[in-house]
Amino acid sequence: MKWFDYAAPRSLAEALDLLARNPRARPFAGGTDLLVQMRAGQLDPDLLVDLKHIPELNELDCDGSGTLRLGAAVPCCRIYEDERVRRHWPALAEVAEMIGGIPIQSRASLGGNLCNAAPSADSVPVLIALRAVCRIAGPLGERRIAVEEFCTGPGQTVLGPGELLVGFEIPPPEPASGACYLRFTPRAEMDIAVAGAAAAVRLSNGVIAWARVALAAVAPTPLLVREAGDWLADKAPTEENIREAAELARKAAKPITDMRGTAEQRRHLVGVLTRRALQQAIARAREAQP
Ligand SMILES: Cc1cc2nc3c(=O)[nH]c(=O)nc-3n(C[C@H](O)[C@H](O)[C@H](O)COP(=O)(O)OP(=O)(O)OC[C@H]3O[C@@H](n4cnc5c(N)ncnc54)[C@H](O)[C@@H]3O)c2cc1C
Predict the structure, then answer these.
(1) pTM across the whole model
(2) Cβ of 134 below 6 Å from ligand 1
């Protein structure tokens, strides 16, 4: 690795100023993607801007409306150790515990998982299913966008020069709602998803009020399958309807063949994982019925 400078700003304003004055600067949180890429010679920033000491990026709290405010640099272990997250957003706690092993989880953030923009990023489908919104800050002020609009291609995001992801806002869980993320990896842990599927569902009066399905590793970006959710809305949570939604997800996937799996295998996995994720999300929604 070539020499680089390091800065650890204590405020968001200071971090934005550093990024504005150094076009070859790179922000980082856990560094578990960035440092690997720098070692491999894929990136050679002149300045690394450490985001871990900025209060807004370390926030993990619920506001008055019950919305979870999750800072972009909060490490996975803080997320899955948080009682409120475990109780109200269990799928989020589970995916934070799925990323890497314990040493990775003590550094890696969900902000980094999203900003790295790998199609296989495990937390992104869950954030999409939970309707999370990104808070972005930059030279022109703050803006918000839905997580599903953040990645524009492999390694590409909507972030403009000098912009930072500050964090996520995750709406409070509705009554009788549940979510789940499942992935297929050849090894049980410390592996990259060959395919992944997240589902979130709300039940009301015996039918599915709304559902969201999002996929990992089967398109150039994490993919929200709107047609699967639209199909399930106002329908009974039957096996037949779940299978049809899983089939819509299978059709929406645009997988490639690479060293981890073939396009055909991935498409098959999308059908299986979506069906199982929906079944588990519905089971959780039933348990959460008032
Ligand atoms: C052994 C190992 C196992 C892994 N297992 C998994 C796994 O199971 N599932 C999985 O999805 N990933 C896995 N990863 C990849 C990685 O750990 C995750 O993507 C992690 O969430 C990245 O978070 P980070 O904070 O370390 O990101 P960093 O490396 O700090 O940053 C990643 C990228 O995002 C940018 N960035 C970071 N924060 C911000 C911000 N707030 N605003 C703007 N840009 C930002 C950085 O410039 C960089 O380009 C693994 C990695 C390793 C080394």
Answers:
(1) 0.98
(2) no
Mean pLDDT of 70-75: 98
Q: Compute the distance between CA of residue 27 and CA of residue 16 in angstroms, rounded to an integer.
A: 10
From 170, 202, 223, give the residue that closes a domain. 170
* Pocket test residue of 4, 18, 32, 147 for ligand 1, highest count of atoms within 8 A of CB: 32
241, 255, 274, 278 from 248: Cα distances, Å: 11, 14, 10, 13
Residue 195: phi and psi, rounded to 5, are -160, 155
Domain boundary among 170, 195, 212: 170
Tens of pLDDT, residues 158-178: 999 999 999 999 999 999 999
CATH number of the domain encompassing residue 184? 3.30.390.50
Read off φ and ψ for residue 286, nearest 5 degrees.
-65, -40
197 alpha carbon – ligand 1 mean position (Å): 19
Phi, psi of 145 (to 5 degrees): -140, 160
Percent of the chain exceeding pLDDT 70 equals 100
- Token pair 């808070």 is found at 135
d(CA 235, CA 238): 8
